């Protein structure tokens, strides 16, 4: 962005990070409304598609001649994590209801622990994969802010295309998710008719 000027680069990265954090907080309210109006699956797909637009913009927004463009992808990418952590827990609750219908046990603790284990596994894989990708791109730590043009290009491609690919995979996974809004409501009604509005004992 700034010809190796790490101080100025860190300044703009701070701007983008702050905007992204604020946007993620606001996205929670937007995604909640979308989920109420259109259903959780559609809300997740829409929020993830918006984040894909943000990832794609990273290929064009990192422009030294127009540095403020770096802020453009941040609020759009916020829809990815905002949608994920807002909608997934409520979708897990639907799975817990379906499980209770067939097992007569309420096991939200088990499903919640599996969910967060997978989240932490994903974070660990991302951290490890980041180092591998840096080596693949030809990044040289000794060159500091003066990396080769090919390394910069490959880093930018990885930074944009890998999140796009994994987001599309997430959309596919959610679209094949068998619990619909209608079926979840029917399961809930059946459970309440069977044991009232309280929870079954584990």
| CATH-defined superfamily | MFS general substrate transporter like domains
Structural class: mainly alpha
CATH topology: Growth Hormone, Chain: A
The mean pLDDT is 87
Q: How large is the radius of gyration?
A: 21 Å
User: Regarding CATH, which class?
Assistant: Mainly Alpha
The SSE order reads: HHHHHH
- Number of separate strands: 0
Q: How many angstroms separate the termini?
A: 56 Å
Domain tally: 1
The outline comes out as elongated
Low-confidence stretches: none
CATH architecture annotation: Up-down Bundle
Largest sheet: none
Helical stretch tally: 6
Percent helix range: over 70%
How much of the sequence lies in strands comes to: under 5%
What does this structure look like?
- The chain is an all-alpha fold.
- The protein has a single domain (6-195), classed as MFS general substrate transporter like domains (Growth Hormone, Chain: A), CATH 1.20.1250.20.
- Helix content is 78%, strand content 0%.
- It has helices at residues 6-38, 40-61, 73-103, 108-137, 149-175, 181-195.
- It is elongated and about 65 Å long.
């Amino acid at each position: 962005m700034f010809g190796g000027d790490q101080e100025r680069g860190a300044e703009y990265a701070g701007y983008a990070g702050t905007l992204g954090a604020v946007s993620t907080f606001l996205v929670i309210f937007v995604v909640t409304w979308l989920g109420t109006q259109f259903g959780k699956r559609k809300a997740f797909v829409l929020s993830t598609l918006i984040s894909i637009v943000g990832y794609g913009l990273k290929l064009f927004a990192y422009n030294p001649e127009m540095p403020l463009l770096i802020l453009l992808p941040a609020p759009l990418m916020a829809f990815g994590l905002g949608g994920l952590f807002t909608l997934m827990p409520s979708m897990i609750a639907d799975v817990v209801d379906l499980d209770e219908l067939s097992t007569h046990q309420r096991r939200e603790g088990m499903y919640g622990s599996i969910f967060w284990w997978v989240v932490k596994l994903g974070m660990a894989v991302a951290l490890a994969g980041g180092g591998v990708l840096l080596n693949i791109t030809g990044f040289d730590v000794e060159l500091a802010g003066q990396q080769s043009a090919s390394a910069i290009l490959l880093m930018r491609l990885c930074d944009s295309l890998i999140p796009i690919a994994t987001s599309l995979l997430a959309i596919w996974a959610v679209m094949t998710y068998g619990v619909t809004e209608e079926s979840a409501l029917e399961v809930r009604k059946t459970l309440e008719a069977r044991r009232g509005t309280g929870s079954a004992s584990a």
